[in-house]
Amino acid sequence: xxxxxxxxxxxxxxxxxxxxxxxxxxxxxxxxxxxxxxxxxxxxxxxxxxxxxxxxxxxxxxxxxxxxxxxxxxxxxxxxxxxxxxxxxxxxxxxxxxxxxxxxxxxxxxxxxxxxxxxxxxxxxxxxxxxxxxxxxxxxxxxxxxxxxxxxxxxxxxxxxxxxxxxxxxxxxxxxxxxxxxxxxxxxxxxxxxxxxxxxxxxxxxxxxxxxxxxxxxxxxxxxxxxxxxxxxxxxx
Amino acid sequence: xxxxxxxxxxxxxxxxxxxxxxxxxxxxxxxxxxxxxxxxxxxxxxxxxxxxxxxxxxxxxxxxxxxxxxxxxxxxxxxxxxxxxxxxxxxxxxxxxxxxxxxxxxxxxxxxxx
Lengths: 237, 114
What we know:
Strand content of chain B: 25-35%
Number of helices of chain B: 2
Helix content of chain A: 25-40%
Number of helices of chain A: 9
Largest interface: A-B, 35 and 36 residues
Shape of chain A: globular
Largest sheet of chain B: 3 strands, mixed
Helix content of chain B: 25-40%
Largest sheet of chain A: 7 strands, parallel
Oligomer: heterodimer
Strand content of chain A: 15-25%
Radius of gyration of chain B: 17 Å
Structural class of chain A: alpha/beta
Strand order of the largest sheet of chain A: 4-3-5-2-6-7-8
């Protein structure tokens, strides 16, 4: 049988992008700030979240979805903050996708939230490719990881809005070069906001909380997408 | 490592396109794969061989066109390459060029069918 060539244009991430867009619209309506945390394993995502849920939870409805390939250890730790937490066990998958997120939100009585944190699977490669409908993508890198993570995994830093350098209380002990670290981050994303935190001492956490508060306030200052559409229909008739 | 998931999504797209075209067999599937897509070429080919069994593409060869990373250099005012491991730095003039214009592709663009 004669072969013929068929041209197609299909991005394999198209389905994820469509689901993420639907999530973004849903969170726009509920006025929920969604924060996606990315890092390699052991950079301190769970520790940062423990402190964040505890502090922000005093004044806001906050919750977290936690992705891990195995165990509920992180979810158990976070639940001690008193905030609602759901675990997503991804088994072989190395990242969360919008479909997993949508399923994890089903029937969750904690909704709607003011701020939803997503603790992605510890991995700096795959999660960078998957939009989860988040407002804020935050990449963490610990001083114990050295300074060159952004050069090795440029996309994670390039697509993030905020870079958090964590465990700064250990900087001196591990000979961390702060200028080199900032320089490496700026070589892949010059305009990114860089914050430095030490969750065990609490140093640097206030600016982080303030950033979240400001982002939540600015999200709520803008009407949801569907309300904007209604307005424009009225004005054009 | 989510190559198997990618192979399955690819087969889903191939199946839908083959049905639209009224094809009975798929001989070749062509994919653009960016160097910064997070996907390992050999792992994807390995996954493809496993995933295609029992589908309309059960004997289809996956042909991968590699796409190198290109950035938009604001100083050169053009597309430029980057040197891996040095950040998003224009290889021609050394300016920081954070706008990635190619290299994230994971796109099915053609197939041969009968």
